[in-house]
Amino acid sequence: MIKRIAALTALVPAMLSTAVVTPAHSAPRATAAVVTLTYDASDAGQWAGPIEQAVQNWNNAVHNVRLEPASDPSSADYVYEATSGWPQTTLGPIFPGGSGEVQLGQQAVDEGYDATRITAHETGHILGLPDDYSGPCSELMSGHGPGTSCTNAKPDAAEAAQVDENYAAGTPRIRPQHHQVVIDVWSGRVLTNSR
């Protein structure tokens, strides 16, 4: 019995060091292509830092889309622009070859809202997320709902999952011709349309 245990003790390390051979017919797992969206921030002025952080936050949170600065501003899929009004954005999801616009409004900053949160929130619209003002501070798309003390500029897990779903199929064959513009009034005031 002792001889058998000794033989097994010598055999186990030899078995563990044996290489595992993959059959020749097994194919590597296919991974979905990541959609790369390019942006131009040349007209964003003082928003450069918040844009860089917001883009980094989104790139860290999602897997199916990546945001990168455009090498040529005229070829950007969307643009960031500093304005004096309220933030407003093209509601996506925007895809390569598309045209979206993020207007980063100074009025929201003047009201006391965090510039990086504003930028990340507006970028969420480009990626196809609607507003949810009743959400908590941990939800980026709650926007101004939680008030000026909320500075969270990172999407939560559900928001990141929705963006990944929006881009899961890669670039669509048919692109919508018209996009809705979302105007975020980051204060207690409500804008009304007078006709």
Question: If you had to describe this structure to a student in words, what would you say it looks like?
Answer:
With 195 residues, the protein is α/β, with parallel strands linked by helices. The protein has a single domain, classed as Collagenase (Catalytic Domain) (3-Layer(aba) Sandwich), CATH 3.40.390. The protein contains five helices and six strands. It has a six-stranded mixed β-sheet. Helix 2 links the parallel strand 1 and strand 2. The longest helix is centred in the N-terminal third of the chain and has 15 residues. It is globular.
Overall pLDDT metric: 81
Task: Outline the biggest β-sheet.
Answer: 6 strands, mixed
**Could you say what the CATH architecture is?**
3-Layer(aba) Sandwich
What's the SSE pattern?
HEHEEEEHHHE
Percent helix range: 25-40%
Distance between the termini: 96 Å
Question: Which keywords apply here?
Answer:
zinc; globular; Collagenase (Catalytic Domain); 5 helices; 16% strand; alpha/beta; disordered N terminus
Short description:
It contains five helices and six strands. With 195 residues, it is an alpha/beta fold. α2 packs across α4.
Give the SSE layout.
Elements: H1 2-16, E1 35-43, H2 48-61, E2 65-69, E3 78-83, E4 88-90, E5 100-105, H3 106-110, H4 115-126, H5 157-166, E6 181-183
Parallel strand pairs: 1-2, 1-3, 3-5
Antiparallel strand pairs: 4-5, 4-6
Enzyme class: hydrolase
Cofactor: Zn(2+)
Protein name: Extracellular small neutral protease
